[in-house]
């Protein structure tokens, strides 16, 4: 009898606890989180104005303004409970502490360009920690260094550098709206990389909020953590507040050109030759090849053109000599070449006509994304035979809108050891491929995603293998992923070994040291494993 009473009592207790827990989850989680944020910050930097929940009329616009892929831009498809657009470093610290104590996941967003939307989607309840208001940039010309906040865009950084000096630059990506937070932590790949390596090769310090809400920098930022966030992706280790970077020298005159060859005009032959020479040119040269569809509007005329984009750190005369010697098949003419300052090359790379003002570099478009896209990447270590290229063209022609970027390696990329930073794809690559498909009709998603799989399968014999390398900044969920709330280590090793090759082991150890309980987790995060 007594046992029965105890049992009933226990059952009631269990029932009560679970009911009240459910109530806590449903109604109080946001209030607790907000109250905690309030408690954790000081009144001179009130956090309330930085917080946006579904009750705010600006919630949807705040969500979509830093989304770039229409596939993931509907907040209704996610379990987002709040957006904290930090206006002060203490807001970042509070968000980490309070999300952790309330068992809410966070997604960190700087520029919002993540190809798979991982900075703003999740299928478990989460908060977006949005860094876009933390965007100051301080340049020290005499030391050739700068501090760049995570929420600054590349366009803002390039503008600030060029205002301070005509002969300094920073090696990073082409698109001006990329956020320094995500872009640099994922590697940061751009047209100065054959001369100076990628962004992470030019990062010397950072300010990072760790899982306990502490700011680590300088002497308190371990070498191992600084190593990991240079190419390992920021989101697995903490929140990057800012980067200290070295600026690099560029001449006052830089030369660019853009010429193209269609298949009918011998594109395959020129591209074949490009594979043999592009990684061996002087490292001042960056010659990108972009196979793309042409004349899609006229079915009888549809073809592929390979567009060659070049940047040379020097005058046109010298550039012409180098091309005539190494790739005369291009048929380059002096009038194809434009000499300009480094800052003005940004207009060229974003496809504006020569002479366009660089004021677009400061634009922060807030419209919802207009297009859906899917991207994948590969590394190529030996030339693709012409038959292989013909195979690729056949599949490309099935798309409505698709292009590839073949980005030459060599130069500094061959000289920097694969373990110098967490970014591992160095020596031994001829070039890197990005595949990119774009569409505007939601109904075309399955067809495009399917075609991307088809082209990726067809490329397998020609690209790196065991593992097949992939570039973290070109995030691709097809190469392995975990559910939002759980990290399966075996699965993590699959995508991890593709992104990080031999650096994965050390990345997992650094993760175990700085975030042993795996608070900073998402679909492609690095799991905390001490030994393997
Ligand atoms: C149009 C376009 C052009 C591109 N061109 C290039 C290029 O030339 N070279 C190149 O290398 N890449 C390029 N990319 C890829 C780009 O570098 C990556 O998408 C990069 O992750 C974007 O950074 P973000 O801050 O804008 O993105 P976000 O979506 O904000 O973040 C990307 C990832 O980083 C994490 N993260 C963001 N901020 C922080 C932070 N402060 N602390 C910790 N983790 C953080 C996010 O959680 C997410 O996982 C391009 C992308 C697009 C859409
Ligand atoms: C916030 O602080 C108040 C007063 O110190 C305290 O009663 C409350 O429990 C705290 N709330 C949270 C969520 O930290
Ligand atoms: C959201 O609404 C709250 C309460 O009205 C307000 O204090 C806060 O400033 C709003 N947040 C934003 C980002 O507008
Ligand atoms: C290719 O070059 C031709 C002639 O120079 C030009 O008309 C065309 O627009 C170019 N196409 C691309 C995709 O750049
Ligand atoms: C960049 O181009 C613009 C427009 O042609 C020109 O006015 C400006 O002087 C150029 N800037 C530099 C630094 O060369
Ligand atoms: C990189 O590898 C080399 C050779 O294996 C080793 O000597 C060096 O300590 C490693 N560097 C780092 C940063 O791990
Ligand atoms: C997409 O498919 C839906 C459902 O089949 C259909 O109603 C809609 O008209 C289609 N949209 C376009 C642009 O074809």
Automatic annotation (TrEMBL):
Instruction: Give the location in the cell.
Output: Secreted, Cell wall
Q: Which cofactor does it need?
A: FAD
Q: Sorted alphabetically, which SUPFAM superfamilies does this protein's record hold?
A: FAD-binding/transporter-associated domain-like
Signal sequence span is 1-22
User: What is the predominant subcellular site recorded for this chain?
Assistant: secreted
Any matching Pfam family: FAD_binding_4
Indicate the segments forming the FAD-binding PCMH-type domain, all copies. 73-250
InterPro entries for this protein = BBE, FAD-bd_PCMH, FAD-bd_PCMH-like_sf, FAD-bd_PCMH_sub1, FAD-bd_PCMH_sub2, Oxid_FAD_bind_N
Keyword list (alphabetical) reads: Cell wall, FAD, Flavoprotein, Glycoprotein, Nucleotide-binding, Oxidoreductase, Secreted, Signal
Q: Which family does it belong to?
A: Belongs to the oxygen-dependent FAD-linked oxidoreductase family.
Its protein name is Berberine bridge enzyme-like 4
Query: What phylogenetic lineage does the species belong to?
Result: Eukaryota, Viridiplantae, Streptophyta, Embryophyta, Tracheophyta
What gene is this protein translated from? LOC104718259
């Amino acid at each position: 009898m007594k046992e029965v009473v105890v049992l009933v009592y226990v059952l009631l207790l269990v029932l009560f606890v679970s009911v009240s827990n459910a109530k806590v989850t449903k109604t109080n989680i946001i209030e607790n989180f907000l109250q905690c944020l309030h408690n954790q910050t000081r009144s001179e930097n009130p956090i309330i104005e930085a917080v946006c929940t579904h009750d705010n009329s600006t919630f949807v616009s705040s969500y979509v303004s830093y989304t770039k892929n229409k596939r993931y831009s509907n907040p209704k498809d996610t379990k987002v409970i709040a957006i904290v657009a930090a206006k002060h470093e203490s807001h970042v610290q509070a968000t980490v502490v309070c999300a952790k104590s309330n068992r809410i996941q966070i997604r960190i967003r700087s520029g919002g360009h993540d190809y798979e939307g991982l900075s703003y989607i999740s299928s478990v309840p989460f908060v977006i920690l949005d860094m876009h208001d933390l965007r100051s940039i301080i340049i020290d010309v005499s030391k050739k260094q700068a501090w760049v906040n995570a929420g600054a865009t590349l366009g803002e950084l390039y503008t600030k550098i060029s205002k301070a000096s005509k002969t300094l630059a920073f090696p990073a990506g082409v698109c001006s709206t990329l956020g320094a937070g995500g872009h640099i932590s994922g590697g940061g790949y751009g047209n100065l990389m054959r001369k100076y390596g990628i962004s992470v090769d030019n990062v010397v310090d950072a300010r990072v909020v760790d899982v306990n809400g502490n700011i680590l920098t300088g002497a308190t930022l371990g070498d191992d953590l600084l190593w990991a966030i240079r190419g390992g992706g920021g989101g697995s280790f903490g929140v990057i507040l800012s980067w200290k970077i070295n600026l690099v020298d560029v001449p006052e005159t830089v030369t660019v050109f853009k010429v193209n060859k269609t298949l009918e005009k011998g594109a395959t032959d020129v591209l074949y030759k490009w594979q043999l020479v592009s990684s061996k040119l002087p490292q001042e040269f960056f010659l990108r090849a972009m196979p793309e569809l042409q004349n899609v509007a006229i079915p009888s005329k549809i073809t592929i053109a390979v567009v060659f984009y070049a940047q040379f750190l020097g005058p046109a005369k010298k550039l012409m000599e180098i091309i005539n010697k190494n790739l005369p098949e291009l048929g380059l003419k002096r009038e194809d070449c434009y000499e300009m300052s480094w800052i003005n090359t940004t207009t060229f790379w974003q496809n504006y006509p020569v002479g366009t003002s660089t004021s677009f570099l400061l634009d922060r478009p807030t419209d919802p994304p207009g297009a859906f896209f899917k991207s994948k990447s590969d590394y190529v270590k030996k030339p693709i035979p012409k038959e292989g290229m013909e195979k690729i063209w056949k599949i490309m022609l099935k798309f409505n809108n698709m292009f590839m970027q073949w980005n030459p390696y060599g130069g500094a990329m061959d000289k920097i050891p694969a373990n110098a930073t967490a970014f591992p794809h160095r020596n031994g690559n001829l070039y890197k491929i990005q595949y990119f498909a774009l569409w505007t009709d939601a109904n075309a998603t399955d067809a495009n995603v399917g075609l991307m799989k088809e082209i990726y399968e067809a490329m397998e014999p020609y690209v790196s293998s065991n593992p097949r390398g992939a570039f973290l900044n070109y995030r691709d969920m097809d190469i392995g992923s975990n559910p939002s709330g759980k990290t399966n280590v075996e699965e993590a090793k699959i995508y991890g070994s593709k992104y990080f090759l031999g650096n994965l082991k050390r990345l997992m150890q650094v993760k175990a040291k700085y975030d042993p309980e795996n608070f900073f987790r998402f679909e492609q995060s690095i799991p905390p494993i001490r030994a393997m």
